[in-house]
Amino acid sequence: MKYFIGEFSRLTNLGIHTLRYYEHEGLITPGRNSSNRRCYSDKDFIWIEFIKRLKETGMPIKKIQHYAKLRAAGIPTLYERMEMLIAHREALNEQIRQLQEHRTKLDDKIDFYRQEIERISKNN
Fold first, then answer.
1. Residues sharing a CB contact under 8 Å with residue 104, sequence separation 6 or more, in sequence order
2. Which contacts qualify for 24-28: CB closer than 8 Å, 24 or more apart?
3. 8 Å CB contact between 81 and 115
4. CA pair distance 42, 79, nearest whole angstrom
5. Alpha-carbon distance 65 to 104, whole Å?
6. What is the C-alpha separation between 124 and 80, in angstroms, rounded?
7. Residue 28 to residue 20: CA distance in whole angstroms
8. Which long-range contacts (CB under 8 A, 24 or more apart) does 38-46 make?
């Protein structure tokens, strides 16, 4: 299926300006119709969803741009793209580990307050 920019904006939940910015930055390359209007495809939708996931998991835009260039270069870059994603996954796993540690410390502090409140309530 083909989508013009307004339709694609609604479909992806990204603003038209964001889509144009992504195109300007080389992240996406929509096709053009005979009137030179941008035409997005279902493959573009899948790619945009992946870009959003990379952004949401903290990959910097410069790395996403590099990944997009590798993707555009095709099969010879499969290994490098895989290595980029492995490194990103490792960084994400470290962030998750740190967040879990922070949550544990917060849980400990919350338990402390509950115990103190309970202790004070019993003594009054």
1. none
2. 25/61, 25/65, 26/65, 26/68, 26/69, 27/51, 27/64, 27/65, 27/68, 28/68
3. no
4. 25
5. 36
6. 66
7. 9
8. 38/4, 38/5, 38/8, 39/2, 39/3, 39/4, 40/2, 40/3, 40/4, 40/5, 40/7, 40/8, 41/1, 41/2, 41/3, 42/1, 44/3, 44/8, 45/3, 45/8, 45/11, 45/12
CB of 58 within 8 A of CB of 41? no
pLDDT digits (tens), the chain, 124 positions: 999 999 999 999 999 999 999 999 999 999 999 999 999 999 999 999 999 999 999 999 999 999 999 999 999 999 999 999 999 999 999 999 999 999 999 999 999 999 999 999 988 7
Nearest to 54 by CA among 10, 29, 88: 88
